Amino acid sequence: MPQSFDPDFGLTADDYGRHRAGFPPELLIRLTARGVGLPGQTVLDVGTGTGSLARLFAQAGADVTGIDPAEPLLGQARELDRAAGVKIDYRTGTAEDTGMPDRSFDVVSAGQCWHWFDAPKAGIEIRRLLRPGGRVVIAHFDWLPLPGNLITATEELITRYNPAWSMGGGTGLYPRWLTDLATAGFTGIETFSFDLDVPYTPQAWIGRIRASAGVGASLPDEAVNRFSDELSRVIADRFPGDVLHLPHRTWAVVAQPND
């Protein structure tokens, strides 16, 4: 993506906390079958944002720490944790330099954020943090632009307002992350994916898009407001309805250090 594109998700923390759908519980079922997210495990969730992936692990009984550079997102995460009845230790920091002790975690996870990291440095840091037998998991939960659907129309609108945004047209699959992990010295690399529809009201979808990198995290307020109004008109004219069922794909890779 262009070097000039440098989103700040702290700018959109409220929409991020209110409108971004969290990872589906089905992800945890598949991860626990692979030894990730078990009760009593210590988990570090890097790039935790509002704690979507971290909360899944905490609800399963893991001891979870979340790290993110954007304190406003961590504030939203704490509010969401209180509503969910879980306790997670949040700290400001980065995946490349967590400041956590060597070999102190059974699992290090990264949800919806690996593309923002310096992958070689993050890989070295994660290996340092994992105990023997530990595992790393990288997970994504992405909308799917299909011909003629609202997501495709939304991406076209984002690109018109923000030409620097180059993250559209995704498939929800990330083969490059496998190379990142192998290069960093991880083995036993395994991936899985599954699709599901996510229900959004029109206003919730507009809020979800405001919380994205290409809109609220990188455009000035006036442009965000104009974008929101135009997306509202697109929905009313072309995709009317009280509930929008939008296709999403969950994808994850699990691996372990080779030492």
From TrEMBL:
Residues 44-138 form the Methyltransferase type domain. CDD domains: AdoMet_MTases. This is Class I SAM-dependent methyltransferase. InterPro entries: Diverse_substrate_MTase, Methyltransf_11, SAM-dependent_MTases_sf. Signal peptide: none annotated. Keywords: Methyltransferase, Transferase. GO terms for biological process: methylation. Belongs to the methyltransferase superfamily. One of its GO terms (molecular function) is methyltransferase activity.
